[in-house]
Amino acid sequence: MGKYTKPIVLIFGLLLTLGIVLIAGDRIYNLLAKAGNSSPENVQITAVTSNSATITFTTAEAVQALLEYGTDASNLTLFASDTETTSHSIVLSLLTPTTTYYFQIKIGDKTYDNAGVPWTFTTSGANTLLPSPTLGIQSSPTPGGGGQIPCNEVAKRMGAVPASPNYQISYDLNSDGIINSADLALCAP
Q1: All residues at 6 or more sequence positions from 42 whose CB lies less than 8 Å from its CB, including other chains
Q2: Per-residue pLDDT tens for 56-99?
Q3: Considering the entire predicted model, what is its pTM?
Q4: If residue 184 lies in a helix (H) or strand (E), which one and from where to where?
Q5: Rg of the chain over CA atoms, in angstroms?
Q6: Which of 104, 163, 108, 170 is nearest to 140 (CA)?
Q7: Which residues of 64-127 form beta strands (DSSP E)?
Q8: Distance CA 116, CA 101 (A)
Q9: Are the C-beta atoms of 189 and 151 separated by less than 8 Å?
């Protein structure tokens, strides 16, 4: 009886392993089939700035999506993913200003693009709305007749607006309603 014990245990182990593989394989197949049947819809590119963009889309079923993106349409080497959901929103950050990016969406084992080509967007340029502060320029008298205002006093009040407790009109050297870097460009060193 002892010489038959090893083969019986071995056969039992093999049957158990085969059963686990069949059950797990069926579940994995169903998961991939579910993901493969849920294509992205209503793909939108929103909130594009000089260094980020948000890609939103929906799927019929809750799936995890992977965004493949890059600056070369034929070589998408960067990746971003989200959690399993039906309403997807993937933020791409650390992008380069004034650069065109391409992306495609991968769900399960299927890749989706924009009718045969990757979707595309271009980041905006660097923020040029605010002037760079230039310290040391002599200011002209303020509208209230205050004379020259020291830059260190202006700097203490940066960001103040008329409703702020530290706002004083005499430090708003360009009279734009906020104490900012434009006022630093006009203060006395």
Answers
A1: 56, 57, 58
A2: 999 999 999 999 999 999 999 999 999 999 999 999 999 999 99
A3: 0.51
A4: helix 181-184
A5: 31
A6: 170
A7: 65-70, 78-81, 85-93, 100-107, 110-112, 119-122
A8: 16
A9: yes
